[in-house]
Design goal:
Length: 152
């Protein structure tokens, strides 16, 4: 059985644009997974973080992986891109957040679905609305309208 999953991609260290584009391609190489759609690239100011602007996107996947298995694969890709976690919200070479996995609702130590901060972040909502408008409300978009973000 497969599910539609949505993954937010972000980077703000090194060649962030190249890292996001590479991650989009790499997601399609995961076991039992294919990329169904991807958003445009966006540039956004860091939210609750420091460092240079982020390059962001959202990818829609069709996957046979269970949520925790998909999360492990996302973390493997982050490590492969040189991701370090010296402190919370540190600048990063690659950040992959599992937003949705089908209609799964769960809260474990490692994973919360849907992602708990989706509605607080323009850098997630705008690209998500581009490829999955049914997942985003106008109220959510209004709530983040003051955050600096531009479509590239």
């Amino acid at each position: 059985m497969t599910n539609r999953a949505h993954v937010a991609i972000g980077a703000n260290l090194g060649d962030a644009r190249a890292a996001v584009l590479r991650a989009m391609a790499d997601l399609g190489t995961l076991p039992e997974t294919r990329v169904v759609a991807h958003s445009s690239l966006y540039r956004s100011a860091p939210v609750d973080a420091t460092g240079p602007d982020f390059i962001n996107a959202v990818v829609e996947l069709e996957t046979g992986l269970e949520p925790e298995a998909l999360l492990r694969e996302l973390q493997r890709l982050e490590l492969g891109a040189g991701r370090e976690r010296p402190y919370r919200n540190a600048p990063r070479t690659l950040d992959l957040d599992l937003l949705f996995h089908g209609d799964a609702v769960m809260a474990t130590e490692a994973l919360k679905l849907p992602h708990p901060r989706i509605s607080e972040r323009a850098f997630v909502l705008l690209p998500l609305a581009e490829i999955a408008p049914d997942r985003v409300t106008q109220d959510q978009l209004r709530h983040v309208a003051d955050q600096r973000i531009e479509r590239l």
